Please model this.
Amino acid sequence: MVVPTTAPRSAPAEPVTDGFEAFYRAHVDRVYRALAVTLRRDDLAHEAVDEAMARAYARWHVVGTLDNPAGWVFRVGLNWATSWWRKLRREGPPLTDTGHPAADHPAADTTPGGALFALAALPLPQRAVVTCRILLDLSTAETAEALGLSEGTVKSRLSRGLAALRAQLSTEE
Amino acid sequence: MDEIPRDIQVAVRAAAEAPQDYKGELSTVFRRARRRRARRRATAAAAAFTVLAGLAGGGFALRQRTDAMPLHEPASPVPAQRLLLPGADGIYVAAQGDPSPVHLGDAAQIGELSVDDHLLTHQVVGGGRYTTSIGLPDGRLVSMGPRGAAPPHGEMLLTVETPGGQTQQRDVTSEDEPVSLAAADATTAYLWRPYGLYARELAGGLERLVISSDMLELPDSDPAGGLDAADVGGDRLVIADQDRSCRPLLTSIAPPQGLRFLPLTALGCTSVTGLRLSPAALRVAVTYRAKGASRVAVLSTEDGRVLADREVATAKGGAAAATVEVAWTDDRTVRGVVVPTGGKEVHTLRQFTVVS
Model:
């Protein structure tokens, strides 16, 4: 795949994309999995990561200079997916809400060690912090920046999320 | 608490292996970015044009208000959609055209009612009971039907026939999975497959997923089986899910996102039988059942308002044993016909028009 980095003079200007392809190949699967765990829907995560990557590509001259472009892509994907749902819900709730990323009840599926079940029981904000910290390997400060939160909020959500996970996983055992 | 216990890290990482693999490609991201950029430019251009038009021609436009068209309406005429009769099953004659009766239903041909009220027939290669056909404004006919055994075990063929008789035919079956034709335009056929709606290039056969079944809350194994009606026009998809037939859902397919529901419940709707987007996708014509009668409503896709609604077949008039087909003449005018089915008598097809 050739990434267009220059354009003919007569053509419309293409975004500056040096390094985008390498970034995409290195991070897309990890961000997708983080979104799939957070949103609890693989298909929505797929669309969200594609949309967020397209936006990152369009603004790569800015996004590429960030400390954690993957965190930026995660946040944009998460916002896009939750907006999509909210928009649908404003028009009228679907008959079943089980697929809603913000649903409080756990999904029916089970996973190795019951961790996905336990994660699904967390509120969406806590789940987002936990996945950023563990799956994207972001520090507290980096998670705060990626999600647009204060470090205190990240710490408190992480603390509550880990406590709930610990309790849930202990119950499973 | 900033440290994360190792056992929880391991459990969460294991959980992240559960989702199915990411199947996207970089080329999809580039395409998506290009579409997004084009949309933003078009929006900016339209906004600038609107402002300039408002400044330069405001007074004149006010004086000519009665003749004015909304700014979002396309200025150039769009080709009229064709009124095909896929549900026909019987002997028919057009009310104003050639009085010779035509038999439609079990032969390899499909009927069409022209704007000037002639009943035309088109041969469909390999056509039959399971075949779906869509007529393109340029005269081509896009059809899908089985070769050999009936679905789900036969090969499904996508056929494009030109008015000159040239035929291009492709087997679009994949691993015995159900596939059906949702819509078609000059370059693309839209197919329902288990994972969602796919756009297939008519020229090259390249397919891409445009929206997944899960995003539309349709059964993953056979999304078309969960629908009462659907249509694609431009970058809009409208579906009537069997579970909420009278609340069709309008979505964008580029990028895929839900836009709004188009409720017909206030009109007494009990089920939707057909959906057809106008050429610019600004309106949608909905055929539906209400109190045993068949009706046609026109809704705005921009805000869901009901712009027109009329009864086209009464319960006494045999609405239950008839289908209703509609096609847009332009972005404001939809023509249609009630097609009675069955019986040995000759059915006369009378066109109706709904202007919104």
User: Anything to note?
Assistant: The longest strand of chain B covers residues 333-349. The radius of gyration of chain B is 23 Å.
